[in-house]
Amino acid sequence: MAAKEAQPVTFVWEGKDKNGNTSKGKIDAENIAFAKAQLRKQGIVPSKVAKERVSAFGGKGKKTTPLDIAIFTRQLATMMKAGVPMIQAFDIVAGGVEKDGLKKMIYSIKNEVASGTNLAQALRKYPDYFDDLFCNLVQAGEQSGALETMLDRIATYKEKTEALKAKIKKAMTYPIAVIVVGLVVAAILLIKVVPQFETIFQSFGADLPAFTKFVISLSEYAQSYWFIALGLVVAIGVGVKAAIKKSQKFADAVDKMVLKIPVIGDILYKAAVARFARTLATTFAAGVPLVNALESAAGASGNVVFYTSIMQIKNGVSTGQSLQNATRMTGIFPNMAVQMIAIGEESGSLDEMLDKVASFYEAEVDNAVDSLTSLMEPFIMAVLGVLVGGLVVAMYLPIFKLGAVV
């Protein structure tokens, strides 16, 4: 078994060049002694050399994201399909990585593989970045002798999954942003603008309209208790997040509720169908038995309603039912998806049909998010118009009334 190679470390240095000018920079070396030796070869007299401080697997203040893993997988697959040996492929990929923490992880995996560990086992040491599905597919690729093909499939799966997540995030963020902007505008008007009008109204000595009185009372309440209202909103948000983590029953209830939200629920439903089809297509094409593939798809569904339904499908398939019948009996999957699964089973091209289902519903999610964005624009104008316009009308009603009397 080969000895592990020393892992390059990034050092920050300061020193003087041949002309006596002070300069500084970074250099990769196995240890501080090698770093100083390399600098001297470059004609630099180092006055300070120290390891660069980076966070674990992030680096430069940035965390390693699932998209980074998708890019890493795609690059590794491309290198290996081009005939580059795996160890050399790791070096090439790591050389193009900007995040020092991610680079450190890639070198660590490379050293594990170079010492005789298979790639799947090396990846399992980083469960935060490589889940069971990822590692199982890599293991299947190694066992079948088609690792580069499997890495290509995994890269496609990760890229599609992350693109879908980005679309869902966009769909969820937009309405929340509208509500927050509306509340902030209303709060500013109530706390800063309305009190100025209230002072003017006191000099009138006349009875104010009911709507104006209501807005003034609301303004007084906002001035006195705005911090309580803000604290309550934060507390509810933190409480709900904590409850989702601690109580599976509460988390399940939230999953069921979000699917019933108008427009947003439809987007989440289509996204779950796409995830199911994409995961099942990838795992089944990799040679994973259908029952095990369904278990992976259930875990990747991201919603308890679909998780329960997919596990029901798994149990049905285990007892001899066809995938088509088991899927239809759940009553949760759209008829188009069921029909495509039936065609795939009959023609022996289930993975291709599932891939088409995934692509179709990913496109549906994309279109739904674009439609939501278009619908939200007039909604934003309406919300801000009601909030701002209502407050303005309330403040000018007494002036109109006074003008009518005069």
Biggest sheet strand order reads: 2-1-3
N-to-C SSE string, H for helix and E for strand: EEHEHHHHHHHHHHHHHH
- Tell me the domain tally: 2
Helix content: over 70%
Give the end-to-end Cα distance, rounded to a whole number of Å.
100 Å
Return the CATH topology of the largest domain.
Answer: Receptor-associated Protein
Low-confidence stretches: 1-5, 54-61
Q: Count of DSSP E strands?
A: 3
> Rg from C-alpha positions?
30 Å
Describe the structure.
The chain has 406 residues and is mostly helical. It folds into two domains: 9-51; 165-406, Type II secretion system (T2SS), domain F (Receptor-associated Protein), CATH 1.20.81.30. It is 73% helix and 6% strand. It has 15 helices and three strands. It has helices spanning 32-41, 66-81, 86-95, 100-114, 119-123, 132-144, 147-202, 210-246, 248-258, 264-285, 290-300, 304-318, 323-330, 335-347, 350-405, and strands at residues 9-16, 22-29, 45-51. It has a three-stranded antiparallel beta sheet. Helix 2 packs across helix 3. The N and C termini lie far apart (100 Å).
In short, what is this structure?
The protein is built from 15 helices and 3 strands. It is mainly α and 406 residues long. The protein has a 3-stranded antiparallel sheet with strand order 2-1-3.
